[in-house]
Structure formats: structure tokens, C-alpha cells
Amino acid sequence: MGSEPDIAAASSEDDDAQLLERYQQGDAYALDLLFLRYRWAAYRVAFRMLGHEADALDAVQEGFIKALTHLGGFEQRSAFKTWLLRIVSNASLDLGRRRRRRDTLSFDGLPDGEARGPMTQTEPSGELEHQDLRQALEAALQQLPEGQRLTFVLHVDGQLSYREVADTLGISIGTVMSRLFYARQKLRTLLGAHLIP
């Protein structure tokens, strides 16, 4: 058995379809390369949807597991990245709903006088000088309607084109454009104080 190929070389030489074909022919490493290729885009989408590093990592893992178990259902009508980010965004939405239910139940169950720990979020980037702006952006994103937030996150953090976002969400390009327009308008309003020097 030969040594593993160089990840950077293999991931830049083969396109997604070639890697999927290699996987179907028994090369399990080809699938690893696909997931490595899109892990940061998936993380950015999950983090923007959930606003918490640990939850985002959980959503990415859950999304990747679902993608792996449903790979046979991927019909290549869309790009692999589009398909994968759809699964990760759905996993993020599901996890966010579960987390809200869990948080509601855990806070409702605390005695009135019991101290509650600070509700801080872990910052993945470590750039402390931009912490206020990041927190304001996370708070502003959470105020967007779910459809606008998901559309915005897939386009900006997932780096999907309008067509790819439309394919991912099963909506028209016009709806993507409309959602992005209103999301940007609302974010400008919510972040105005942070954007003006």
C-alpha cells in the first residue's frame, strides 16, 4: 500500500466530480479530501447561524456525518459544495432549535436566587480588538428572519453564488436577491453605530 497523497496537491488537482468518482471506485481518501476542501466554509456557515464555536463544530460534524450516510443520494444535480452546505445549514438550524429548547428548559429549572454564569461566546479567531464588532454582528444576524439569515450566511460565509444559494435553499434567484437586499438593509441599520467612525 502506497503512502497517502499530499492533501494540498490532490485537492487542487482533482475537481469534486473526480474525487467523488475516485471514492465510488473504492478510494476512501478521496472523500476525506472533499471534506477537507469544504470544512472551513461549512464551519463559517454553522458559526454564523449559531453564534457559538462549540455548537458550530457540532453542527459541522453532524452535517458531515449526514452527508456521508446519504452520499448515495447525491445525484450531482448541484455542486457537491452546495449540497454539503445545505446539509450543514439544516443541521445548524436543527441544532439551534434544540439549543433554544434546552436553554429555555435549563433556565426555567433554576431556583430564583441561584447564580447564573456569564453568558459569553467563545471567539474562534482570537482577534480581541474586533470583539465588539463581532458580537454586534452576531447579535444583528440573530435578529434577521431565518430565511434572510440563512441566505446571507450561505452567500457571505459559505461563499456561494446567487445560483448556488438558490439551489441550496430551493428558491429562485429573485428570492435570493430580495432576501440579501433586505438582510443587508437591516444589518446596516442594526450595525450603523459600529460602521460609522
Give structural notes:
The protein is mainly alpha-helical. The protein folds into two domains: 7-108, RNA polymerase sigma factor, region 2, helix turn helix motif (Rna Polymerase Sigma Factor, Chain: A, Orthogonal Bundle), CATH 1.10.1740; 125-197, Arc Repressor Mutant, subunit A (Orthogonal Bundle). It contains nine helices and no strands. It is globular, with a radius of gyration of 19 Å. It starts with 6 loop residues before the first helix and ends with a helix. Mean pLDDT is 77; it is low at 1-11 and 106-129.
The CATH architecture name of the largest domain reads: Orthogonal Bundle
Looking at the structure, what is the overall shape? globular
Strand content: under 5%
DSSP helical segment count: 9
Distance from first to last alpha carbon:
60 Å
Tell me the Rg in angstroms: 19 Å
Q: List the helices and strands in order.
A: HHHHHHHHH
Sheet with the most strands?
none
CATH superfamily membership of the largest domain: RNA polymerase sigma factor, region 2, helix turn helix motif
Mean pLDDT: 77
Overall structural class, as computed from helix and strand content, comes to mainly alpha
Number of strands: 0
- Specify the helix fraction band: over 70%
CATH class of the largest domain: Mainly Alpha
Classify the fold: give the CATH topology of the largest domain. Rna Polymerase Sigma Factor, Chain: A
Q: In total, how many domains does the architecture comprise? A: 2
